[in-house]
Amino acid sequence: MTAKKLLTAIVSACLLLSPSARAQTQAKPFDLIAWNGGKFIYGVDYYPEAWDEAQWDKDAAMMQAAGINFVRLAEFAWAKMEPREGKFNFDWLDRALKVLNAHGIKAVLGTPTASPPAWLYAQYPDIAAMDENGVRYRYGSRRNYCLHNPHFIAATQRIVTAMAEHFKNHPGVLGWQIDNELGDPECFDAVSRAAFQTWCEKKYKTLEALNKAWGAVFWGHTYQAWSEIPIPWNTLGKAYNPSLALDFHRFHSDSTRDYLKLQTTILRRIAPTKAITHNEMGLFDNIDYSDLNRSLDFVAWDNYPMFGKDYADYFGAGLSHDLMRGSKNNQNFMVMEQEGGLPGWSVFWGRQAAPGLYRVWAYQSVAHGADGVCYFRWRTSRYGTEQYWQGVLDQDSYPNQRYQTVAQAGKELGQLTDLLHGSRVVSPVALLVSPDSRWAFHLQPLVEGFNYNQQLRLYYDAFRRAGINVDVVFPQSDFTPYKIIVAPSLFVVDKALSDRLASFAKSGGTLILSYRSGVKDEHNVVTNSTLPGPFAELAGVAIHDFDPQTNQEQAVQGADGSHYPARVWFDILDPDTAQTLATYEKGYYAGKAAVTENKFGNGSVIYVGTESPARELYSRLIDYVGQEAGVSSGPSAPDGVEVALREKEGKRILFLMNYTDQPQKVSLGQSYRNALSGSAEPAEVQLAPFDVKVLTTL
Ligand code: GLA
Ligand code: GLA
């Protein structure tokens, strides 16, 4: 984009995305704020069982003073609630709830199954999961049970039933969080293997169908009895069939979903007035969240923006928020664990964030659709693995700077509640995430340097830099609300999905595909059509040759003469009906097409045969595509500042977030009202270091 065009985009009347009249196709979304009695959910994860009871009231008073009205409790307290098999003790939790409720604080209770008690392992050692090498996990950590173990299932039913019965009418309990961060581990024992064989039989009905789907003729791996089907041990080595291994991933995802459902069914039957959620992990991809979340009332997730990254990587957390929102029809969600201090286990992971950043991150959650923010954790533990995982308070309970920051944000979000209530994120662009493709790339990582999430980020970041909201969609999502869908490296694809994408383009949408799309069918078997297989006609190109990147340099030249380095993978495109947008510059295929565009029906399909470390390539591409698709850029924010938008009845709520330690300016081209102070902001908004402004149309 030239500087002049950029300026035109900024000052154009369509400064921001126009409010969408998108029809609500699904059931009424769960209203988190109404659920919390009309208050924005502002909470902490609290472990009263680990602190002297005399301290509880002081804690609750300090929470209340910081605007806290919500806690999550008990998700690791199985041993405390069921100290012996079938003997329950909820007295301590009743007393804790009483203290918290007296300070206006309501609770979600975690079902404690992520950390089963020692007595359960002693009694039934085989509840522990078995790893790929046939070694059982040992007692001492958490998340180490086998989902299929009948003793573990029975124990789960018992504790969940007891909790539901005890708290079903408790006015201070709003609902439940199921388990804690479901997804690990996969279990490779005989019970799990038998369950996998049953799963296969249910899916394929006949062994003939399974053998055909898996291409079991290869190396003579043909099955004549369901009981012969192995567990795909050593999936990252050699001895597996990728079709079998992909099905095993699906089996694990389905098993996790069924385990969650086992709990939700009990809770709904006994305590129908309580809501149910689960704390998820953003880009974590062992399970298909879009499937898991069908049996929840709303999505919650655990957001640690600094994880291994520098603080400038705010788009990483942004994408995770958007993915979590997208995993349940784009409905508003909450953050069940919002970073409240420096993370660490045996070592601290990184450096301390400036206190103001904790507030900026909380606002980022809200800007991306959170109607609740709950910090992990109230106070750093004195005990156990997480002595170095900071809470809001440290062990001494001193009201430190993080506490002051949390209190400031609590006060502000309280004031903003009416404005936020009923507002949501609306985006003209969607990023398609395919669980099957992600799993298939785990099994066969393609080439050194390839990373599916990195592909997502290249496109996602470009839209966000242009101030354009992005939704994440899954293969079953509704595609109709979008003008542009980006489906990076859509590797494993069934006919239903390729047909839906074709009709999206045909009816006027712009589809962006990138390299290694349409390579595999739904069984993880390579297509025998010319690549990009089911997308060849849509993209108007054929791929008869490709070149992985090993030890070589490559570059592409845009039709406008611009040059960009290229890396990882080079599809050598042979345009049929497509136009060439960029060509390769080096090697035996210099001059051949690298990026193409094809008119298809009323829409168009862009095929990007490579990737580039240069973000300018993506900015240029989305500027070009945006102009064609009628998606205008939002305000141009400097690096280190994020712009995000919620909407309510046509009214825009604009969040400007400064992640840097420097003052920043954002040119909006018009004046907005500051939602907190009520006063008008100049068209060029000033942001102090680590500060946030929430603005609405005047
Ligand atoms: C060896 C084997 C072949 C084939 C190739 C490629 O040469 O004998 O069967 O597997 O490696 O992997
Ligand atoms: C996850 C878990 C929490 C806690 C934090 C920090 O998010 O859900 O219980 O362990 O990590 O380690």
What this model shows, in words?
The protein is of the alpha/beta class. The protein is about 30% helix and about 20% strand. The chain is built from 19 helices and 27 strands. The protein has a 9-stranded parallel beta sheet with strand order 5-4-3-2-1-9-8-7-6. A 9-stranded mixed beta sheet has the order 11-10-12-13-20-19-18-15-16, sandwiched between helices. A 5-stranded antiparallel beta sheet has the order 21-22-27-24-25, covered by helices on one side. Helix 3 (about 55-65) runs parallel beside helix 5 (about 90-100), helix 10 (about 240-270) crosses helix 15 (about 435-445) and helix 13 packs parallel to helix 14 (about 400-420). The longest helix is centred in the middle third of the chain and has 29 residues, at about 240-270. Mean pLDDT is about 95; it is low at about 1-25. The protein binds alpha-D-galactopyranose (2 copies). The site of one alpha-D-galactopyranose has 8 residues, from loops.
